[in-house]
Amino acid sequence: MKWILRYLKGNSNMTLCYVGKKIQLLGYVNSNFAGDVNCRNSTTGYVFTLRSRAVSYVSSLQKIVALSTMEVEYVVTTEACKELISLKNFFKELGKELCIVTARA
């Protein structure tokens, strides 16, 4: 937390600038069924990029032990959609409209 506050203090005069009304957000989603050999939890992973720059990234073990690959896919898709809604609302507050493109890795 200390490093984040130092960074913000040192860069307080910098701003994000997105040109144009529509912004293309590209999302990649992936999962790994029972990837952890100790507890058999699956891995959730997704990344959202904006102009080839990652703006949101997650790679973590799922909190549940899934019984099928379908269940793993459902969980990872749900988590990615929740993040997508947050990003969409953020850009809406900035007055920008997102053009959303998704891909399966």
Q: What's the gist of this structure?
A:
With 105 residues, the chain is an alpha+beta fold. It contains two helices and four strands. The protein has one domain (20-104): Ubiquitin-like (UB roll) (Roll), CATH 3.10.20.
Keywords:
105 residues, Ubiquitin-like (UB roll), four-stranded mixed β-sheet, globular, 32% helix, 2 helices, alpha+beta, 4 strands
The top level CATH class name: Alpha Beta
CATH topology: Ubiquitin-like (UB roll)
Which architecture per CATH?
Roll
Order of helices and strands: HEEEHE
Span between termini: 32 Å
Structural class: alpha+beta
**What is the typical, i.e. mean, pLDDT?**
78
Tell me about the biggest sheet?
4 strands, mixed
Shape: globular
The fraction of residues in strands falls at: 25-35%
- Which ranges are low-confidence, i.e. pLDDT below 50, for 5 or more consecutive residues? none
- What is the total domain count? 1
Q: Major sheet: order of its strands?
A: 3-2-1-4
Over the alpha carbons, how many angstroms does the gyration radius reach?
Answer: 17 Å
Assembly state (oligomeric): single chain
Helical residues, percent = 25-40%
Describe the structure.
The protein is 32% helix and 34% strand. It is an alpha+beta fold and 105 residues long. It has a single domain (20-104), classed as Ubiquitin-like (UB roll). The protein starts with a helix and ends with a strand. The model has no long low-confidence stretch (mean pLDDT 78).
